[in-house]
Amino acid sequence: MHFAMPPRKTSRPPPYAGRNQSKMAIPPALKNLVRTRARLILGGIVGLFTLLWLLGGTGSSGSSMSASKVGGWKAADIPKVAVGSGPPVVIVTVMNPKADPGWTAKIKSNREDYAKRHGYQTFFPQNDQYPLRNAPPSWSRVPAIRHAMTLHPGSTFFWYLDSTALIMTPAVPIHTHLLSPAKLESFMITNAPVVPPDSVIKTFSNLKGDRIDFVVTQDKDGLAPSSFVIRNGEWAKFFLDSWFDPIYRSYNFQKAESHALEHIVQWHGTILAKLAMVPQNLLNAYASGPASEKDGAFKEGDLVANFPGCDKDERNCAKEQEAYWAILEQAKN
Amino acid sequence: MSRSPSPQPGGWSSPGLNTPYDNGGQTSPFIPNGSSPHNVTWASAQARSAEVKGYPGFTPRSQGFFGKHFRRISTSLPFNHGEKEKLGRGRSQGSKIMQILSRIGRNMWRLRKWLGLIVIGIIGFVIWNVALRRMYNRASWLGGGSKYVVILAANQGGGVMEWKGPREWAIERDSVKNKRKYTKHWGYELEIVDMSTKKRYAHEWRESWEKVDTIRNAMRKYPHAEWFWWLDTNTFIMEPTYSLQKHIFKRLQDVTYRDINIYNPLNITHPLTDEYLDPETRSAVGDGKVDSVNMLIPQDCGGFNLGSFMVRRSVWTDRLLDIWWDPVGYEQKHMEWEHKEQDAFEYMYQNQPWIRPHVAFIQQRQIMSFPPGACGEKGDDPNIHYQERERDFLVNMAGCEWGRDCWAEMYNYRQLSNRLNRSYWEKFKDAISDFFKKKTKKSEKKKEKKN
């Protein structure tokens, strides 16, 4: 027979199959929660893991070390003195303790008078008080300036002046007449060979006056570190320490520290970039000796009269300087 | 009450074919309430009246692209469940697999919002991982990665002095790959330098003293970078997940020492005591401020080690790089200074006081662990040698070219690094394979015992 309709369902439904009883009993409350908030819980878990992974990817913890602990340093208690808060210029002259004490006293008073007039400071160390390691005593000027910087951290300029030189025009304050940026810029000799007559290394031509940390002159033979000015600062420490390197001191430079200076100035750009060469008569005019032919010889009105080498060999500084002392005495009265 | 068209065991009731026999099993010819001969249902009548009234009592749902085309799309899917006019007449049909598939499909459609979120999340993560993370790590105002430059010396001593064999090539390739991956992940700059011996100077001087020139060139090339990290070829970054910022620079005061007396293999007198020096130079730790550190350098058992060190861009560094090589020093000492820059720097540290306040020594294992064979055969000094358990950052196979096998060391450390930095998935896989390996081994052993 053909039926249009499907047969009826059996009136005896099969019994429900028993559920596989899981061993872990989940509390019904939790089960309900899982059932009703399934999406939320799932999303939360996924989100949490994503977050953990992302954070774990960008950050990482430093390893703890079985190595012996180092570190733990803290800011040291070092008084900071602002450069410029002290006297503007400190005059440094290294004295030879074996020299004639009368002359030494006169040299000291020459600088002290000048310093007093303009509110400067003076510093007169002995040439045997620094550890030179058998180097010639003329090297002591380098640690002497460093020493002066330690003693007067607030000063801006440190003027090293050899004991053979005299300050002839004490009325002229050096820090405004030579060392102000504008003055320096107008005076400095640019694009000139550092060592005459034909060194390939020339002073930079695009220097700014306020970037200058080292003012020096050149005599006939080369740089003349018998009178120069250094500006206080980190560069000065670098410059003085590398100039004072034991290698240079033990190296057989013919003229000790002045050849070493010429060497580092020519080989190291960071030093040359801070150097201003000024006409010799502005800072270091020679009354005798190998003055620069153009403007090196002393004439009236120059700040300094230098007698280079008058303390060496058989020479006598006091005698050579007699006429100049007389001029100074005259000016005083 | 109307009979809404609903699937019945017999299928959809279709107009016209509506027979009394249609109401499954009901034998009487009685037509149930309200069902007109034309089979007008309540819903259809309502819809028609809504049309007449002309206001949208009924808005079609199918508006957007998916609404319009969903049916077409879904019918073309394997788990189609919208099409009911087929032979199976609403009964689930096909194999069990099709049933499961269709259930999955239904559920997916039901959870489409959540699925969409997850998909967006995945896409976002991929974009983050591939492109944005690097940008984030690089940007100077976020991760700050562009402030660090890794300088990798390649081809050391090669060039005119030596032919490179396949092993040397392999070492270099591995080393470069390792650093490239690391710098890419963290957004650092990588500068690979050809250190082959070049006769760049007319005289013989300054041969293989290019470290200084190289760092200066890198400083010029990356004018916004702050720290420059020098790395020798024979180094391997074991933990690429450590960033320099977090691993070193954020805890500079904990991982470095400025007073060399803490570890002083060279017996350098420190601090300086000369009275002509200023208090900062005489202080054991300089001024003790973090920002006065311009150079980070590790010490091994033989003194300073320049295989992995860092300098910061500063005027101090400029001066150091300028003064580092000096012809007078070179002339006098080049026979004695076997390690060139390294010995020269040791010398300068001792003799030029301005250097000390700006150098910090970093605990060796933070930046450069040694393998056994360097500074002790056993490799058990916790201050010097690589410790796997503590996940040291970098291995420097220093001196491996003198009697050790550079390539073997590089290979082993690379494998170790890969193993230590597996992803969770890889760890899981490896655990399973290890488990089975153990089982087979055990059974083999049992067999052996039986035999």
UniProtKB/TrEMBL annotation, chain A:
**What InterPro entries would the database entry show?**
Glyco_trans_34, Nucleotide-diphossugar_trans
Its name, as the record gives it, is: Alpha-1,6-mannosyltransferas-like protein subunit
Note the Pfam families from the entry: Glyco_transf_34
Instruction: Decide whether keyword Glycosyltransferase is in the record.
Output: yes
Q: What keywords would UniProt list here?
A: Glycosyltransferase, Transferase
Gene Ontology BP terms: protein N-linked glycosylation
**Region span, Disordered:** 1-22
Any one GO CC term of the record: mannan polymerase complex
Q: Which family does it belong to?
A: Belongs to the glycosyltransferase 34 family.
Identify the domain of life. Eukaryota
In the record, what terms sit under GO molecular function?
alpha-1,6-mannosyltransferase activity
From TrEMBL, chain B:
* Any GO BP annotation: protein N-linked glycosylation
> Which InterPro entries does UniProt cross-reference here?
Glyco_trans_34, Nucleotide-diphossugar_trans
Instruction: Name the source's superkingdom.
Output: Eukaryota
TM ranges are: 114-132
The keyword Secreted is assigned to this record:
no
Q: Name one GO cellular component term.
A: Golgi membrane
Give the keywords, sorted. Answer: Glycosyltransferase, Membrane, Transferase, Transmembrane, Transmembrane helix
Q: What GO molecular functions are on record for this protein?
A: glycosyltransferase activity
- The biased composition feature labelled Polar residues covers 20-38
**Where in this protein does the record put region Disordered?**
1-38
Q: Which PANTHER family match?
A: ALPHA-1,6-MANNOSYLTRANSFERASE MNN10-RELATED, ALPHA-1,6-MANNOSYLTRANSFERASE MNN11-RELATED
Instruction: Tell me which family the UniProt entry assigns to this protein.
Output: Belongs to the glycosyltransferase 34 family.
This chain's protein is named: Glycosyltransferase family 34 protein
Q: Which organism is it from?
A: Clathrospora elynae
